[in-house]
Structure formats: structure tokens, C-alpha cells
């Protein structure tokens, strides 16, 4: 496995690092406190190409590989995990799904605006009573001939308040179970499509999480992605790649907290020397770095599996479960290294600890990743 990064990869990494440090860092704490969506920064991310990195150049995307995407995600999440998830949903759930399963007309109509950031997308699978158990969809899309009639509620939708285009998973034929599910493209402003309340969250507070309600929404047949009944397969296949993005988000959160812990340990003095001279702190830093590197290799492996055409169901799940648990552990240690200063907002690590938690929950909880891995082992 060759993990040597090309000059192009390094340039993408540097551009993302530069953007994060110059544009995201200075008011990250304020946006977190106020739950303020980073509108200006998201626009800039679109202009810089971060919102459509893997979409093909034919449709105005960056045409980049998954490794480039992972590198950029890490750099952005290092500073602001909320900006990273906004980017992740648009790139790996919405654009990737559309490009791989959409019709030519759908690609031409939607990808250019989504890849440039002129429009933002969201991915709507979860419901109040269907999270991990994603096949038990209650939202219905009844076939009415030349359109579907959509009714139901989607929960926890990232970019839900800001998105112009929603990919909505819904049950058309209950008798067919998961093979009776479709994915429909529903545009904001369609009659009967209402954005519900914004969630007041523990972490990733400046990302925009809403419930979405659909009441007798008429969706033209040409807005269905793929053949009739392949919506669940679409969602699962898209999530395999999405999980690599979330793993990279977790890696970024962990790396950001680790770098701050190293710097702080050099500056803070206790018992007549810098705390970095105490072995207990040194061992924490050593363990943090080791686990971060292990997570990085799992993520690069999953990204390479995807780029080189191998199955990445298992490697993506392994990367996500491992990196998210590393992020939770490393950020907790980073707060500990900072002592009382770690417990207040000014030093960023308490925000990172709160942000890390979500990576163990969304795009499939850690329990679901283990279930996916075990099924791959035993199949
Ligand atoms: N890749 C491709 N296909 C898959 C798949 C995968 N990873 N997992 C399941 N499938 C397919 C199966 O092959 C099967 O299709 P066939 O019958 O045609 O072979 C079909 O999906 C149903 O699979 P199962 O029989 O295994 O279904 P299940 O109900 O036992 O388990 C599950 C499915 C793996 C638990 C699935 O429901 C799941 O992944 N749940 C987690 C949901 C999730 O990740 N939600 C994320 C929402 S988006 C989000 O969170 C975004 C964000 O925060 C930013
Ligand atoms: P449940 O499925 O009810 O799980 C509760 C607990 O039971 C968990 O610990 C779970 O692991 C465990 N559990 C459930 N089933 C099993 C099992 N078979 N074996 C072992 N343990 C099990 N969804 C979207 O569709 N789009 C989005 O953009 C999106 N963004 C999100 C953003 C945020 C901030 C949050 C909080 C969620 C988001 N989600 C989104 C939803 C997210 O994917 C779900 O919350 C997640 O899949 C878990 O579902 P649930 O919350 O219903 O928990």
C-alpha cells in the first residue's frame, strides 16, 4: 500500500490548511457559542472548490481522488468540525450519490450548482423512528403515475435549513421492504416541503441540523434517482463513501486537539518545569500520536480501496469506528493536558471534545459500524 502523497495532494492539503487557519479559526468559538452557520465561509469553500472536490470536471467539480478529499477534510476539521460536516455531506453524500446513480439530465441540472457551492445539498435518510434501523422508513412516496406523493418527517438533517436540494429516501411499496424504497430529489420551495426546528446541539453547533416535513409533496417521476426500488441500495452505497469522510473529520478533530495539547504542554509550567517534562504527560502525547497515526492509515487504506476500485464497505466502517473513538479519546486527553484551562472555551479543546462525540453517532453509530464489519467477516 503506497501512502506517498503526490505534489497535488500536498497542494490540496496546504490550501485547506491555509483556508482553515485564515478563514475559520478566528471566529470558530463565537459561531459555536451562537450556533451560527458559517455562511460566508461556506460560500468561500465553494469558490475554492472544497464543496465539489470529487465531482467530475465535466460538471464543474474538482475531479479529485478520495485521498485529496480526506486530506482537505482533516485540515478543515482540525479547526472547525462544523464546517467539515457541511462540506462532507455536500461532497460525499449528495454529489457522489448524484454522479454515480443519477440520470444524465439530473447530473446536468444539479451537479454544477452543487459543486460550485452556489447551492447546498442535504441527505435525508433518518427519521424519528428510523435511525440505525434505516430500512423501517415511515416516509412514503406513493406512485401516482407521473409523480410521487411524498408524506413524512425526516430528522437530524445536516444542512437542513440551508440546503436548496434534498435527497429524500422514502418507501414506495411496503410489501417489497427495502427493495420498495426510492430516493427522490426534492427542491426547496416545493409546495408542502417545510423546514422544521433547528436542533440545539452538544457539538458541531454551527452546522445546521433540522427536521424536514413533507406534506402531500408532489415530486415528478424524473426526480427519482436510479431504477424503481433501488433507493435503499443507493443510500447504503453512498454512505460507504460518506463514512470515509466522517472518519477524516474525526481524524481532523483528534489532530487539532493533539497539536494544541503538544503546544500547551511546552508552555505550561508546574513543579519548576514545563509539564511536557513530566512523564505522565509525555506518555499521553505518545499515545495520542500513535492512535492518530493508526487512524490515519485506516482512513488512507479505505480511501485507496475506493479510488482503486476495491470494495470499501469494511475498510470504510473500520476507519470510521476507529477514528471516531480515537477522536473522543484524544480530545478528552487534550482537555486533561490543559487542566482547568481545557475546560473553558478560549483554548478550543473543550469544543473539540464536544464535536468529537457526534462522529461516533452519525453516518452509522459505532455499534452499526461493528455490525457492518462483523457481517463482512462472517458472510
Ligand atoms: N453497502 C451496500 N449495500 C448495503 C450495505 C452497504 N454498506 N449495507 C446493507 N446493504 C444492502 C444489503 O446488501 C441489502 O440489499 P440486498 O437485500 O439487495 O442484498 C440491503 O442493503 C438491506 O441490508 P440488510 O439486510 O443488511 O439490512 P439490515 O436492516 O439488517 O441492516 C444496516 C442494515 C447496515 C443496519 C443499515 O440500516 C445501516 O447502515 N444503518 C445505519 C444508518 C446510517 O448510517 N444512517 C446515516 C444517516 S446519514 C447521516 O448520518 C449524515 C450525517 O450525519 C452527516
Ligand atoms: P438509534 O438507532 O435509536 O440507536 C440508539 C442506540 O442503540 C445507539 O447506541 C445504537 O448504536 C444502538 N443500536 C441500534 N440498533 C442496534 C443494533 N442492531 N445493534 C447494536 N446497537 C444498536 N441522518 C440523516 O439521514 N442525514 C443527516 O444529514 C444526518 N445528520 C445528523 C446530524 C446530527 C447532529 C445528528 C445527531 C444525527 C444526524 N443524522 C442524520 C442521524 C444519524 O445518522 C442517526 O442519529 C444515527 O444513525 C443513529 O440513529 P438514532 O439516533 O435513531 O439512534
TrEMBL record:
Residues 229-378 form the Acyl-CoA dehydrogenase/oxidase C-terminal domain. It is an enzyme of class 1 (oxidoreductase). Keywords: FAD, Flavoprotein, Oxidoreductase. Its EC number is 1.3.8.10. The lineage of its organism: Bacteria, Pseudomonadati, Bacteroidota, Cytophagia, Cytophagales. Residues 122-217 form the Acyl-CoA oxidase/dehydrogenase middle domain. This is Cyclohex-1-ene-1-carbonyl-CoA dehydrogenase. It holds the Pfam family Acyl-CoA_dh_N. Its cofactor is FAD. It comes from the Bacteria. Coiled coil: none annotated.
Amino acid at each position: 500500500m503506497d501512502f506517498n502523497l503526490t505534489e497535488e495532494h500536498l497542494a490540496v492539503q496546504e490550501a485547506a490548511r491555509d483556508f482553515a487557519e485564515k478563514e475559520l479559526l478566528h471566529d470558530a468559538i463565537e459561531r459555536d457559542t451562537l450556533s451560527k452557520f458559517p455562511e460566508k465561509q461556506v460560500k468561500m469553500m465553494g469558490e475554492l472548490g472544497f464543496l465539489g472536490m470529487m465531482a467530475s470536471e465535466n460538471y464543474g467539480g474538482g475531479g479529485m481522488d478520495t485521498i485529496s478529499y480526506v486530506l482537505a477534510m482533516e485540515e478543515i476539521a482540525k479547526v472547525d468540525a462544523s464546517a467539515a460536516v457541511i462540506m462532507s455531506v455536500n461532497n460525499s453524500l449528495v454529489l457522489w450519490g448524484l454522479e454515480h446513480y443519477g440520470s444524465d439530465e439530473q447530473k446536468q441540472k444539479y451537479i454544477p450548482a452543487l459543486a460550485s457551492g452556489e447551492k447546498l445539498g442535504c441527505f435525508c435518510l433518518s427519521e424519528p423512528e428510523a435511525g440505525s434501523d434505516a430500512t423501517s422508513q415511515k416516509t412514503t412516496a406513493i406512485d401516482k403515475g407521473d409523480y410521487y406523493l411524498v408524506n413524512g418527517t425526516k430528522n437530524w438533517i445536516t444542512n437542513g435549513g440551508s440546503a436548496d436540494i434534498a435527497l429524500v429516501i422514502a418507501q414506495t411499496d411496503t410489501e417489497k421492504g427495502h427493495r420498495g424504497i426510492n430516493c427522490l430529489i426534492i427542491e426547496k420551495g416545493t409546495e408542502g416541503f417545510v423546514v422544521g426546528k433547528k436542533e440545539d446541539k452538544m457539538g458541531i453547533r454551527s452546522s445546521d441540523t433540522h427536521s424536514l416535513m413533507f406534506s402531500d409533496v408532489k415530486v415528478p417521476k424524473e426526480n427519482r434517482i436510479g431504477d424503481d426500488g433501488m433507493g435503499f441500495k443507493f443510500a447504503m452505497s453512498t454512505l460507504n463513501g460518506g463514512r470515509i469522510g466522517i472518519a477524516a473529520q474525526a481524524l481532523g478533530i483528534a489532530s487539532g486537539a493533539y497539536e494544541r495539547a503538544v503546544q500547551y504542554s511546552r508552555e505550561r509550567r508546574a513543579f519548576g518545569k514545563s509539564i511536557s517534562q513530566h512523564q505522565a504527560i509525555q506518555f499521553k502525547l505518545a499515545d495520542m500520536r500513535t492512535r492518530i497515526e493508526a487512524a490515519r492509515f485506516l482512513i488512507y487504506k479505505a480511501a485507496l480501496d475506493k479510488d482503486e476500485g476495491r470494495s470499501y464497505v469494511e475498510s470504510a466502517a473500520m476507519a470510521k469506528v476507529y477514528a471516531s473513538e480515537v477522536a473522543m479519546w484524544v480530545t478528552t486527553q487534550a482537555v486533561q493536558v490543559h487542566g482547568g484551562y481545557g475546560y473553558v472555551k478560549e483554548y478550543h479543546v473543550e469544543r473539540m471534545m464536544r464535536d468529537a462525540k457526534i462522529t461516533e453517532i452519525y453516518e452509522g453509530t459505532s455499534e452499526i459500524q461493528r455490525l457492518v464489519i462483523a457481517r463482512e467477516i462472517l458472510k
